[in-house]
Amino acid sequence: LKLFPKSIRACSSLGSCTQLQWVPLQLGACRICIQAACHSLHRGLADADSGIGARGLGRRGSPSGRWMLQITQPLQIEAQKASLESAAEVAPWAGEPNWSVPETDSALFCPEGRWASAGGCDGFIFVWHVDHPGAVPPCVRCCVAHFDVCTDHVVDWERMKCLSVGGDFNLAMLDLMGGVVRSRIKSDAGPDCSLLCVDGDLSAGKAAVGAGAQAKIADIETKTWLMTLQGHQDDVHGIRSDWDTNQVVTSSWDRLLKLWDLRSGRCVRSLEGHNQVCTKFDVDFSLQLALSCSDEDRLILWDLKQGGVIKTYDGGLATANDASVDWKTMTAAVCGPGGEVQLWDLETGEITSTITTGAATTGASGQSVDVDWERRQLLLGTWDSQVLLFDLDSGECVKKLRKPRRTLTRVHLKK
């Protein structure tokens, strides 16, 4: 707490807490790291303070929800007041050796081959050529996307462009070939509505963004917000869109998944089944199936068409942070604490194998996972800023992608 006297406004529940050493804050920790650390600490307080369970995190009206808001809001307001004219104005560190790419490595960038990307709490988007013969492929792009945390990003590998959102309240479009931000759209959702997740289709010129407890639709070409989808009671941390069917699926810390019709802007399905906050999910719009993760040892397979639970999977990771599904074989890769990735057979409900980083610590917690199921390779982004490429069959780490220095929020693998 001494490191952030101007940013942290603790609520009364801290008054009687004698275990502040639980919070793993480090000098230079970003707002998302503080929020996650306080989330972890508050699990021990939630049972007494809010009655929602020993591991629960309540709505903003609950003590834990107010705490999150009081911690993050001062930083969010400061961010919203900032005038963002260019990346150089908000990221003076971009020219330093730790944040720049040597010209020899930058010249390796080309549209062909297989690529991996990562975004995280340093506000950058990193790109690697995973076909490089070395065990540690060079980083060929280190793009300043946001002056605050880059909370999520999605890549159009065909166009070599990227959409990202961050703690600076901006939806940014990056040209990965040139390594620059081409446009920004400022959020109009308010100072307590951070942009937490994004999905989009550059061919359609549209993006879907989680902004606080709302989902918002943006026109990338005109740089305008077209629609606001309201219905969640807490922050939206996962969003996926399909512009052919005009559908959007969202997951929220209110423990719900929602299916939206973009033609009317109405919520078509509200899916209830998780006992703790719902984080990320994977979806197949053609099959109308979704697999959701939550802050508990439970995964849920949903029927979006009928609006019901097909199957629940208990007894896995204590916290499931992200999932990637092969819908042809009904196999899911799920990452979580301890540096583990579990492979689930969704038809039998069994864990078929487990991949580990070899460091069963909180710092190695898997935050994001993406899988190339045809080439049998898995990309993992961790809490301690590692980007690791695994052979899916042997479980061996075949490449280490180095450059990030903060917690990873999302990784992508070109398929």
What does this structure look like?
A 4-stranded antiparallel sheet has the order 3-2-1-28, with no helix packed on it. The chain has a 4-stranded antiparallel sheet with strand order 4-5-6-7, with no helix packed on it. A 4-stranded antiparallel sheet has the order 8-9-10-11, with no helix packed on it. It has helices at 31-49, 63-81, 87-90, 103-106, and strands at 115-120, 124-129, 139-144, 150-156, 161-166, 170-175, 180-186, 195-201, 206-211, 214-219, 224-230, 236-242, 247-252, 256-261, 266-272, 278-284, 289-294, 298-303, 308-314, 322-326, 331-335, 340-345, 350-356, 366-372, 377-382, 387-391, 397-401, 408-413. The radius of gyration is 20 Å and the shape is globular. Residues 1-29 and 39-97 have low confidence and may be disordered. It starts with 30 loop residues before the first helix and ends with a strand. By secondary structure, it is mostly beta strands.
Number of strands: 28
- Overall pLDDT: 80
Structural class label: mainly beta
Largest sheet: 4 strands, antiparallel
Show unreliable segments. 1-29, 39-97
Distance between the termini: 43 Å
Shape: globular
Specify the helix fraction band: 10-25%
Strand content: 35-45%
Helix count from the secondary structure assignment? 4
Strand order of the largest sheet: 3-2-1-28
The rounded Rg comes to 20 Å
